[in-house]
Design a protein that fits this description.
Order of helices and strands: HEEHEEEHEEEE
Number of domains: 1
CATH class: Mainly Beta
Strand content: 35-45%
Helix content: 10-25%
Structural class: alpha+beta
Shape: elongated
Largest sheet: 4 strands, mixed
CATH superfamily: Immunoglobulins
Radius of gyration: 23 Å
Amino acid sequence: MLNLLGILAGLVLGTGCDHTTVGYLDVRNAGYRPDTVYFKAVLNPEDPEEARRIQFEIPWQTTPIEGVQGTLPISYQIRSIVCKQGQEEAIRQFRMIRKGVIELPWDHTVPRGDYIFNLQISNEGRSLAKDSLITIIIN
């Protein structure tokens, strides 16, 4: 009888967890603060701040994304960028780096305009899309 209970317990424990998805991911409160940022299209070397950006090749960056909870590591990808200009080649210059920071090289060639970012946020076992999280205005 004891052997039968042991076998039954082993079967229940061994098969009860086969379909459990690994990880936890909650992006309901995901967002950037501020949710609109401004990057310059052309830098003025006469302006001290802009001259420093040119000298040290400092890229334009957003703040890190906030409000994402889940099992680490969490990865962020640019799923799509909505822009009225339709410059697909130019918008490929945007890239996602650590903690959901969106980066653009200091010497970019992205045309002036508004760019709305849709992201894919993932960890092991989960992947969720989040649209219109941040607008980058190139002026």
